[in-house]
Amino acid sequence: MPHEQGSSLKRSIVFQGEHGAYSEQAIRKLFGESPTTIPCRSFREMLKLVSEEKVDCAMLPVENSLAGTVIPAYDALIESELFVHAEVMLRIEHCLMAPEGVKIEDIRYVISHHQALSQCMRHIEEEGFEAKEYYDTAGSARDLATLKMPFTAAIASELAAKTYGLEILRMGFEDLDTNTTRFFLMGREARKCEGRCKTSMIFTTEHKPGALFKVLGELSDRNLNLTKIESRPFTKEMWHYLFFVDFEGSVSEKRVEEAVNAISSRCSYFKLLGSYRSANDVELNSNQLT
């Protein structure tokens, strides 16, 4: 069971999916084997567990280098009051796996999440496999290990293969080796960030000419580098949009604090998601996230 905040037990981190998911692998990349990892059905549910202090943090996938923004994750952030504690970049390496004793020439079918299948389609077609969509990558590995599925392999992570006792038939089964997912570690309190940091925020502007230009000008006027901008429909106002913005810098810097205050004053809605250590900072120390 997840532990309450302040317990002497080790940290608990929730993720969406089944054990062996890439989100769980991102947790292991950041913290090693020390945290208790807890699978969850949805992004909203896992963020709620953090808010209710039933777990310490959540690992949320927000962007993939091939598939783009994870829209349900951004929608969940709109409703959440949590803050970003860290950024994790995980290289996605798909593995073709099967139960012990099954050889690749025995395989006729391959199961996985539709996104994983699409990212491996060239190799799937070269092998002559029939692709079948599954609800989850790690879930496909779990069910392959526990149910009778003759002539079938799964595509999932190396961690999933180890978790469910499957043999890896092919490592690096993905078509492109640039496949990387960006994650946010979400927690209840805003953290002070020093070093190479990023800041994320959500806002909507007034519905008039030049409004977004003026907001972004608060960053460029202070020589702050914009790294991402994404828009989503603002459900409270028809044909208005929320903007998700990431830029380099920390609110502990005077120019960033000034920019955030200026942007907030120009917006009809504003939420600061926090400042956090960039995944590109090789000096990131997970002990600072306790």
Automatic annotation (TrEMBL):
One of its GO terms (biological process) is L-phenylalanine biosynthetic process. Keywords: Amino-acid biosynthesis, Aromatic amino acid biosynthesis, Lyase, Phenylalanine biosynthesis. Residues 12-188 form the Prephenate dehydratase domain. Pathway: Amino-acid biosynthesis; L-phenylalanine biosynthesis; phenylpyruvate from prephenate: step 1/1. GO terms for molecular function: prephenate dehydratase activity. Its EC number is 4.2.1.51. CDD domains: ACT_CM-PDT, PBP2_Ct-PDT_like. Pfam families: ACT, PDT. InterPro entries: ACT-like_dom_sf (IPR045865), ACT_dom (IPR002912), Chor_mutase/pphenate_deHydtase (IPR008242), Preph_deHydtase (IPR001086), Preph_deHydtase_CS (IPR018528). It catalyses: prephenate + H(+) = 3-phenylpyruvate + CO2 + H2O. It is an enzyme of class 4 (lyase). GO terms for cellular component: cytoplasm. The keyword Ligase does not apply. Residues 200-277 form the ACT domain. The record marks T181 as: Essential for prephenate dehydratase activity. NCBIfam families: PRK11898.1 (NF008865). This is Prephenate dehydratase. It comes from Mesotoga prima MesG1.Ag.4.2. The gene is pheA.
